[in-house]
Amino acid sequence: MSARASEFWGGVRAQLPILLGTTPFGMIYGIAATKAGLPVEVALGMSLFVFAGSSQFVAVGLFGDGAPGLIIVLTTFVVNLRHMLYSASLAPYLRHLNRAWKYLLAFLLTDEAYAVSITHYEAGSSAPARDTARHWFVLGAGLTLWVSWQLSTAAGVLLGTQVPSSWGLDFTLALTFIALLVPTLKGRADVLAALVAGSVALAAHGLPYNLGLIVAALAGIVAGVGAERAGWSAPCSASTAAGEHLP
Length: 247
Description:
With 247 residues, the protein is mainly α. The protein has 2 domains: 3-168, no CATH class; 185-247. The protein contains 14 helices and no strands. Helix 1 (3-15) packs parallel to helix 10, helix 6 packs parallel to helix 8 and helix 12 runs antiparallel to helix 13. The two termini are 23 Å apart.
């Protein structure tokens, strides 16, 4: 198998377990879009071209409340600002790519695709030939989630209100993010940043336009950078052990 194919299918395999959490989330979006009165073609079009779960949920909620189009656009923009952090983190590994590749990977960049991709990059490789092909891993991970998202949202739109809310499918996404986070916590600074960001997110949950998410991200960054400058960057045995044993 060529280096490109190996990286691509590696990205696919890394993303498959995560679909257990994102698939119910996609179905919930489809159901929510139907309840909000969004036309089927618009609901499916958002998944096809926007491809941002959190922003899609926010947009559907605002649409159901009769919010102006400008407010919907601005709010979803704020919610997706976290992707700037993801892009900055991956930029050193992808700067050699041409513009077409960068546009494609930027479109496919999600929380889940970023998590497995940055872990893959930071793990390194003993094969130099695979280093130049590693962006195919990002493509495989992102494309796998994109296809799954289309299928799951379509299923949600078709099912409509037939799935009872008592099933609590939305909780699966929280579990997915926890599983993505734990392997990346390699040191005390990482753990502190995660704890601060999580605490602030809970405290700022009631802020309008989901600004609590941005505030929590900034608080986590400040805490992490401060901890590293204070010499807290040493490995954390518990988190490292967890990272070594989780997929």
